Amino acid sequence: MRPADVVRRATAYLERHGVESPQANAEGLLMSVLGTDRADLYARTEGLDARQARLFGRALCQRCAGTPLQHLTGEQAFRRIRLEVRPGVFVPRPETEMLVELALAALGPAEDPVVVDVGTGTGAIALAIKHERPDASVFATDVAAEAVELARANAERLGLDVHVLEGPFLGPVPGDLRGWVDLVVSNPPYVAPETYADLPAEVRADPEEALLGGLEIYRELGERSSGWLRDGGWLAVEIDSTQADAVTGLLAHDYGEVRVERDLTGRDRVVLARRFPGDP
Ligand code: SAH
Predict the structure, then answer these.
(1) How far apart are CA 279 and CA 262, in angstroms?
(2) For residue range 49-75, what is the model confidence (pLDDT) as tens digits?
(3) Cα–Cα distance between 196 and 182 in angstroms, integer?
(4) Active site residue 3
(5) Element holding 141 (H helix, E strand)
(6) What pairing do the DSSP bridges indicate for beta strands 75-78 and 81-84?
(7) Is 90 in the active site?
(8) Is the dihedral of CA 215, 217, 223, 225 positive or negative?
(9) CA–CA separation, 120 vs 143, rounded Å?
């Protein structure tokens, strides 16, 4: 059977088992097993060998049982880079690409900006920013040792010079950068405990500490970032669509300008806050 036919049958199988986006999942799993890209997958005429068929069959079963696609393929595309992912570290989401877009726009053309990504996980935000703004000095922090290790491995593999540091908020960033940071960016754990139980099993496959948070983390991010930012520097955070008013309210204490941006589905998704001279 040609790989294209394998995809067709696997798509039907995943669909019957209620897997969302069955074709993209079937393609993703087969590309991973064959070590190839989408164009080649459909161009190939030779079938799978016995080992590939066994691996693919097992991956399909695991996918139906709720294992996230990225844990089976071991990677996730994020903007223009591919990141290694591992169970135990949050898998970057497509929504977060917009946070990077807005953060890059906020940086503007000024050369050699200093950027800090708080709660970096795989390193997604920090690495995408360094990739698209090579002149930036980029720091990334995380409290989880597994995340720090993975983010460093991703940085090395991608050949991107990002300083990944273990510790909370901006704590591990070199102190002489106080007052010199152009941008603090973060997609922190923001799922409220009361909605956690309702999340799909696949989302709960990410570590609880990477998901569970709430408003408190934004208050701390706002307070702890302001002393590091230069005048006119930005704080950019991803939020849950229900948190926009609360987060803008919290940040309005320390920042002169606060605005909310919506994602493509019209939901509030990112809050940008700018530190003005004379802000506390
Ligand atoms: N920004 C990444 C990861 C998001 S998950 C992405 O978008 O893909 C949130 C991450 O924040 C987790 O890796 C968690 O370990 C980390 N974290 C939680 N509290 C933190 C804190 N106070 N300081 C730094 N990192 C924190």
Answers:
(1) 26
(2) 999 999 999 999 999 999 999 999 999
(3) 33
(4) no
(5) strand 137-142
(6) antiparallel
(7) yes
(8) negative
(9) 9
